[in-house]
Design brief:
This is DUF7779 domain-containing protein. This protein is mainly alpha-helical. Among the domains are: 165 residues, P-loop containing nucleotide triphosphate hydrolases (Rossmann fold), CATH 3.40.50.300; 73 residues; 88 residues, Arc Repressor Mutant, subunit A (Orthogonal Bundle). It has 37 helices and 8 strands. Strand 3, helix 5 and strand 4 form a beta-alpha-beta unit.
């Protein structure tokens, strides 16, 4: 504590605020002069709470930035083992908030540290208007207490209310304000914004004097604390310019610098003289996000040096108050102002770009490819990635490191469901790699391959096909037909073709890929299993249900053995098998498997991951076919809203859910609403997928059924005939979807009293159903039942 007075005040105030249940804020100001941080008081209190009541949860949240706040909530979710915590698209903030407000979870203390920036807390967390500000996820009820540390009285007050504020009178904030007031005079001093300026200046007396001098000199130009603060925060260049200004001060030694930048640079020079390696560590750390700097990256920077070298250098930097240990283990933090001054110092030696490239090199060596098994590391490094990729360097080796980080980050974004951001990164990486290594270099082709996958995930099928075919042609030429990378592109092209309804071509290519992968990799290699999984999907799309089920069951068994029960690829096969079961009329088994898959995907991927939404969509369809129309409608509406948000309104998967919703409405007798939706979907699918895509034909089929239900027989007949003709052409006469339309047209004939034509067409349909689906399939039974009724009536 900074003196017994202040420590005593804290002890007296603690019982006042935390002696009763409810949310309470505690406003603490730290001081660098006494090596006391406001966070240390909060840490001490947390230890006291745990000592008095070991069953109390103690949770720590860094509030210095949006990314750090989210990272803290993600860490809390991990430690609490909350379902859905591993999905970047999942609203982890809401997940933790829900846990905190649940009284069944017992007592807790949450420390929100460095809640200084009101904009971070109260502006939406993204450009989307539907996103809530961070402050809305701070609990106001529940079994816990809230301790907020903030240098901004207004930010703390906005979080907890005026009555819940308590000030620990360490010298930093009060003396800083007094200093600013004395330098400005009462007329120019504005207490409402003073704390924000002091925080931005890092509580440095020289910086405060310098700012006050600048404001006073420009009074005639209406300069105020607020306008100075806006200038300071406008850009890196304006901030450097202000910090470089000399502040007149008669009390200072004339030989001493009166500029913040120069003062810090003298400190840096002293560090370099004392221990060169410590100065190099300082340079390296200046490129990270100020908080949560992981020590494993610092160790990678030291390469083969002893860990003791790193620890000794950290001790030197801490001795100069340039870095500090963070509350979480194995991380450091560095004030943003110190980072800025360090980089300006580097620029005086024309050394800033070299150190940025060192940062890129080390980060590229430690940031892994964004596959499932690497998600934890990727999330930990995410706050530090933006600074690394904000602009492309100039040297070829440095560009390659930059591209590697960009490509790996893009794959992490893609696998966690953020395909739009992944696309932007992939395109940047592709452009840079093409310039450096050429269009046909294997690395360039790898990025093209990834970009095609990202485009497929966004429903941009034509562009995905074009890029896949270009990549495949180049890989065959450069690497050979049986190279693993070539086979990967072939597999990806299969998925694109399937999503465009080009099932026969997709099946042929998939069988070629499977044969090659078995030969090169073996039966149980994950890539081979991916091809098996894709083949089953292609067979299903062509109505070859039994063969699809056999392959899906074999693939599922192998993936469980090789990858484990909860691997995302295993869950994909579970999802597909449930769909195969549904198409064969095994509705109860399909529902059970869908529910199991949904639970697992929520746990592993999160509520809003596209794969989770696919399973929700499938489950709603299974519920609908079992007559559970209300539950199906509810699930469809929930899934639709999320898909619009995550994928976009015209994404093929979004349109699929809208189509299912129309079916649920139709089966509840809401024919007009169903017709309106079906017409909208038809227009959108023609635009996005084309006139003859299988999904477009499904919508035509459904719309004809809705029209018939409303007595619009002539329009229904016309649409049924057009759909049947197109399905025979695209899918074949014996495809189950074709038989569905044939059955519907027969019912349309019957409604028009064309009984002979209806029975004749239905008889032909039944023969094909029995042959393709079997006599016990629900569709076969339903058609037979209709025939029996008609024969009695005719």
């Amino acid at each position: 504590m900074a003196g017994d007075d202040h420590g005593g005040s804290w002890q007296a105030g603690r019982s006042r605020w935390f002696g009763r249940r409810g949310v309470r804020s505690f406003r603490v100001a730290g001081t660098k002069a006494n090596k006391v941080r406001k966070s240390q008081i909060a840490i001490q209190h947390a230890h006291d709470v745990r000592r008095r009541n070991p069953s109390t949860w103690v949770l720590w949240v860094h509030a210095s930035s949006l990314a750090r706040f989210k990272e803290s909530y993600q860490d809390i979710a991990e430690r609490l083992h909350l379902p859905g915590r591993n999905d970047s698209q999942q609203n982890v903030l809401q997940l933790v908030h829900r846990w905190l407000t649940n009284d069944d979870n017992g007592p807790w203390l949450m420390v929100i540290d460095n809640a200084d920036d009101r904009d971070i807390l109260y502006q939406p967390t993204s450009l989307s208007a539907s996103e809530q500000p961070l402050a809305s996820y701070v609990p106001k009820t529940g079994q816990g207490c809230l301790l907020v540390t903030s240098r901004s009285e207004r930010a703390a007050e906005m979080l907890v209310g005026e009555d819940s504020l308590f000030s620990v009178l360490v010298m930093e904030i009060d003396q800083s304000k007094d200093l600013l007031r004395a330098r400005l005079g009462e007329k120019l001093y504005d207490d409402s914004i003073a704390a924000d300026l002091i925080n931005a200046l890092g509580y440095l007396p020289l910086a405060i004097v310098q700012a006050a001098s600048f404001i006073k000199r420009r009074t005639r130009r209406a300069e105020t604390i607020l306008t100075y603060l806006k200038k300071f925060q406008k850009s890196k260049e304006t901030k450097i310019g202000l910090l470089a200004l000399e502040a007149p001060d008669l009390r200072r030694d004339e030989s001493a610098s009166r500029a913040v930048l120069t003062t810090w640079q003298m400190t840096f020079d002293q560090v370099r003289r004392e221990r060169k390696s410590a100065a190099e560590l300082l340079c390296f750390m200046s490129f990270f996000h100020p908080q949560g700097i992981p020590d494993f990256i610092l160790k990678a920077f030291y390469k083969k040096s002893m860990d003791k070298d790193l620890e000794d250098d950290i001790d030197v930097l801490m001795g100069y108050a340039l870095v500090a240990t963070a509350e979480e283990q194995q991380t450091l933090e560095m004030h943003a102002l110190v980072q800025l001054c360090t980089q300006v110092w580097l620029s005086t030696f024309d050394d800033q770009e070299r150190w940025r490239c060192i940062y890129l090199r080390v980060l590229s060596s430690e940031y892994p490819f964004g596959s499932f098994q690497n998600w934890a590391i990727c999330r930990r490094l995410e706050p530090h990635i933006q600074r690394a990729i904000e602009r492309c360097p100039t040297g070829n080796d440095d560009i390659r490191n930059w591209i590697l980080i960009l490509n790996n980050t893009a794959w992490f974004q893609y696998t966690t469901g953020n395909s739009r951001r992944a696309e932007r990164m992939n395109r940047e990486a592709l452009e840079a790699n093409t310039k450096v290594l050429g269009e046909e270099h294997p690395d360039t082709l790898a990025i093209m391959n990834n970009l095609a996958s990202v485009l497929l995930a966004q429903g941009k099928y034509k562009e995905a096909e074009t890029i896949n075919r270009q990549t495949l042609e180049a890989r065959i030429k450069v690497l050979g037909e049986e190279h693993l990378d070539t086979l990967m592109t072939m597999s990806n092209l299969v998925s694109v073709l399937q999503n465009q309804g080009k099932h026969k071509e997709a099946e042929m290519m998939d069988r070629q890929t499977l044969e090659a992968r078995i030969k090169v990799l073996g039966e149980e290699h994950p890539d081979t299993l991916t091809t098996r999984n894709n083949l089953a999907s292609v067979l299903l799309a062509q109505g070859k249900h039994k063969e699809a089920e056999i392959i899906d069951r074999q693939t599922l068994e192998a993936r469980i053995k090789v990858l484990g029960e909860e691997h995302p690829d295993t869950l994909t096969t579970r999802n597909n098998l449930a769909l195969v079961l549904w198409t064969q009329g095994k509705h109860k088994e399909a529902e059970t498997m869908d529910r199991q898959t949904l639970e697992a995907r929520i746990k592993v991927l999160g509520e809003e991951h596209p794969d989770t939404l696919t399973t929700r969509n499938n489950l709603a369809l299974v519920l609908w076919t079992q007559g559970k129309h209300k539950e199906a409608e509810t699930m469809d509406r929930q899934t639709l809203e999320t898909k619009k948000k995550v994928l976009g309104k015209e994404h093929p998967e979004t349109l699929r859910t809208i189509s299912n919703l129309a079916l649920a409405l139709q089966n509840q007798g809401k024919h007009r609403e169903a017709e309106t939706i079906d017409r909208q979907i038809l227009e959108a699918r023609i635009k996005v997928l084309g006139e003859e895509h299988p999904d477009t034909l499904t919508t035509r089929n459904n719309l004809a059924s809705v029209l018939l239900a409303q007595g619009k027989r002539k329009e229904a007949e016309t649409m049924d005939r057009q759909t049947l003709e197109a399905r025979i052409k695209v899918l074949g006469e014996e495809h189950p979807d074709t038989l569905t339309t044939m059955n519907n047209l027969a019912h349309t004939y019957w409604s028009q009293n064309r009984k002979a034509a209806a029975i004749q067409l239905l008889e032909a349909c039944i023969r094909l159903l029995e042959r393709e689906l079997g006599p016990n399939h629900p569709d076969t039974k339903a058609s037979k039942s209709s025939r029996e009724r008609w024969e009695l009536d005719s």
